[in-house]
TrEMBL record:
GO terms for cellular component: plasma membrane. GO terms for molecular function: guanyl-nucleotide exchange factor activity. This is Ras-GEF domain-containing protein. SUPFAM superfamilies: Ras GEF (SSF48366). Pfam families: RasGEF (PF00617). Residues 49-205 form the Ras-GEF domain. It comes from Marmota monax. Keywords: Guanine-nucleotide releasing factor. InterPro entries: Ras-like_GEF, Ras_GEF_dom_sf, RASGEF_cat_dom, RASGEF_cat_dom_sf.
Length: 205
């Protein structure tokens, strides 16, 4: 899934450069200026608890998911050329996935020091855990995909600062959401929920 484009790619370059620098943890001035101009409205993700963050994401996902019509899924309309007319709600649901993934990547790369970047990364792992507990598998996969993306995965110094608990949590989430055997573990988990409400990852609908 294409998470990086335009300005976000430039932020990634600045963040990666700061990872490699042994004398300074700060992003370049150019990266800082880009951060200021990226959005008119910016909020500090660290000021929102993982519980609140996961809850708000889920509240936004529910109406989009509920709007999907059965025929959009049975016809796999979102994969067709005329997807915007044949499966508009499924497309909107997929767009939500992309927005969340992009947001995760962007916020981590925007952090101006190595320490803050590690804190934001940890925050998203905790948020992913809360999404798992809420059974919002759609958003959970979006966050996990963002954390697995190349721009984040290669921030080795940032990952090195995570606690053992955070690393273990992320490994467990990766395990459940793995694509191995056509998402067998995820399918087994969904089956175990029985009648428990959940927001599924679209590929498993």
């Amino acid at each position: 899934m294409d998470l990086m484009n335009g300005q976000a790619s430039n932020v990634n370059i600045a963040a990666t450069a700061s990872e490699k620098s042994s004398s300074s943890e700060s992003l370049s001035d150019k990266g800082s200026e880009l951060k200021k101009s990226f959005d008119a409205v910016v909020f500090d993700v660290l000021k929102v608890t993982p519980e609140e963050y996961a809850g708000q994401i889920t509240l936004m996902d529910v109406p989009v998911f509920k709007a999907i019509q059965p025929d959009e899924l049975s016809s796999c309309g979102w994969n067709k050329k005329e997807k915007y007319s044949s499966a508009p709600n499924a497309v909107a649901f997929t767009r939500r996935f992309n927005h969340v993934s992009f947001w995760v990547v962007r916020e981590i790369l925007h952090a101006q020091t190595l320490k803050i970047r590690a804190e934001v990364l940890s925050h998203y792992i905790k948020t992913a855990k809360k999404l798992y507990e809420l059974n919002n598998l759609h958003a959970l996969m979006a966050v996990v995909s963002g954390l697995q993306s190349a721009p984040i995965f290669r921030l080795t110094k940032t990952w090195a600062l995570l606690s053992r608990k955070d690393k273990t949590t992320f490994e467990k989430l990766e395990y459940v959401m793995s694509k191995e055997d056509n998402y067998k573990r995820l399918r087994d988990y969904i089956s175990s929920l029985k009648m428990t409400p959940c927001i599924p990852y679209l590929v498993d609908l």
